[in-house]
Amino acid sequence: MTPGRPVPPPLAQTINPVADGGVLAAAYGATSGDSGLVPLTVARRAPKADDVEIAIEYCGLCHSDVHATRGEWGNQSYPLVPGHEIVGTVSRVGADVTDFEAGDRVGVGCMVDSCRECGSCLDGLEQYCENGMTGTYGAKDRRNGDTVTQGGYATSVVVDRRYVLRVPESLDPAAVAPLLCAGVTTFSPLRHFDVEEDDVVGVVGLGGLGHMAVKLAKAMGAKVVVFTTSEAKAPAALELGADDVVLSRDPAAMAAADRTIDLIIDTVAAPHDLNPFFRTLRVDGALFQLGLPSEAMPPVNPGALICRRIAYAGSLIGGIAETQEMLDFCAEHGVVADIELVGADQLNEAYHRMVAGDVKYRFVLDTGTLQAPAKEADA
Fold it and tell me: What is the C-alpha to C-alpha distance for residues 62 and 282, in angstroms, rounded to an integer?
């Protein structure tokens, strides 16, 4: 058995009581910060008038799932079922739902609600909701009392139709799952910067986010340059479609890249010095920070920004309309994530491998490997 891997309990714990018309969903999640992922049973509500009930087929594994389940981002409510890259088919809809019907293939990303009233929500930027978006898991469900949202490592979920996305039938549904986080997280700044043919896009890091940034920027017609600290990653970057690879540890290579880049997408989640990358940007260039280091970054030299009117910006996933735009764009250009499919019994091993950087490039859970909820859990 893998060291640190928990022994599954004989009977899955049930999260929340089962209400009339609701269903029990088999799931995997954490019962404490050091429990690892164990079998659980989640009670899902019956669809309300605007709800869509989804039979989950696949759910991507995001590194943020690891942080959340291990309590590495502060106090966490347990038990917790992670997963915010959900793809499945509609099983039931509420009485007022007209835009989805049973059998439709759909997706759910990082949020399942927002206030719907603030300026950001009204502008289609629900991810920046001024009253706080409702995350797909680990968040207080603002429309269902004191319950906490539970995510997609499960066989079903119920979500308000406004936060459900239509998955194009031409795309592999398993490989679509990571698009709902990694895909839109990289698509949004590329669109915000209006990337087009012949622009030069730099991508820092070649993990789950980085490989999507390469694919999407190429599909937009850009020339793509990957910056990496590992020379061994150069063949993989070129295979993904990158036009060039720069070894960022090599001062001569970085000097040669001076003033050659229009936009940098930085996906690295570990502290690193940004100043050498600013020097590769042209006048009016921008660096978008997507990786969120847990420790302080080295200070930015304001002079590097001032002397070329460079923008240093951040970006968080994407709104619902933009996420749908991204899915449609990916269907048009045949873009999906590179994935490794895993079963429920491989989830803890997959977490260990994610932390070690041993994945190329995203893990996706096949929810068909989850066991049906035990009938005793109904009691």
Answer: 33
Say whether pLDDT at 55 is over 50: yes
- The tokens describing 94, both together, are 């509420």
DSSP 62-90: -HHHHHHHTTTTS---SSB-----EEEEE
Buried b / exposed e across 54-80, counting CB within 10 Å, b at 16+?
A: bbbbbbbbbbbbbbbbbbeeeebebbb
CATH number for region 182-314: 3.40.50.720
Beta strands in 172-314 (DSSP E): 200-204, 223-228, 244-247, 261-266, 281-289, 311-314
- pLDDT tens digits for 139-180? 999 888 778 999 999 999 999 999 999 999 999 999 999 999
For domain 13-181+336-378, the CATH superfamily is: Medium-chain alcohol dehydrogenases, catalytic domain (3.90.180.10)
Around 102, how many Cα atoms within 13 Å sit in the side-chain half-sphere? 5
Phi, psi of 234 (to 5 degrees): -60, -50
pLDDT of residue 18: 72
- pTM score, whole prediction: 0.92
What CA–CA distances, in Å, run from 6 to 34, 38, 65?
9, 7, 17
